[in-house]
Specification:
The protein has about 120 residues and is mainly β. Helices cover about 0% and strands about 50% of the residues.
Length: about 120
Amino acid sequence: QVQLVESGGGLVQPGGSLRLSCAASGSTFWMYTMSWYRQAPGKERELVADIASARSLTNYADSVKGRFTISRNNAKNMVYLQMNSLKPEDTAVYYCKTTRVVAGTNYDYWGQGTQVTVSS
């Protein structure tokens, strides 16, 4: 079992910044890719960014490239999403996710989500 707890969401004006945090349980955090997803009202959940365990390689959705930065601190079991130049279309619930493979089966673990609202 892995528990993920997000924090840092809120209301911000267009052009502003927020930093989301995700705290993960377990001693093997450092071994696994961590991801941020988001889901806007009436839309499907989409991948925002992920960061691999090895060498912390990162991947971003085109819509956030150059504005968002994902990072991790393996010593603290934390993953972060720094969001700059926020736009109203970034409004969504943001979720932290990781996957464990047990006996060849993938198990996805999600946090409860944190609301980000970009509005003037």
